[in-house]
Amino acid sequence: MAFELIRGGKPTQQSRSARLTPAQRRLHGTPLRQVSCLQYPNGIGRMFQAVDYPRLTQISRPSASGAAEAFWLVDGVPVLNLEEAIEALDVPPVLAAEEVELLRHVPDEWTAPEDLRALITSGIPHADGHARIRLLRVLFDKGFLEVDEARIRRGSMPAAG
User: Is pLDDT larger for residue 127 or for residue 15?
Assistant: First the structure.
């Protein structure tokens, strides 16, 4: 998986850090790891997760002009900018009852997706497959699941940023 860094401006290290907002300074140098490719009508986009702040996601997608545009999400919810993302990260994530129920069935050790599917299907048979996938996605967005290549495990409880 590709890694990028959250960066500031380009000129010099000193002028770059002077121009960064407090939020950008806080995240400056945080690695982003690519977690997905996204198909758009005018090209391929990419989804990145901040390694140090797993609740923070960046989507990079092609614009109509062909240039790349990027936007941020915290807990899977779009935010206006990086400053708003930092504010959102300062609030601990909240889990719904159905998310807590599903999380109880996710093991702490690395698990193959098909094994996880069997565990959560037997653990919460009342939810259909689409509902379980949606809940897993929400848990990933909130930083409660770690995904590495073709393995999944319960992550440590994400704290406020």
Answer: 127
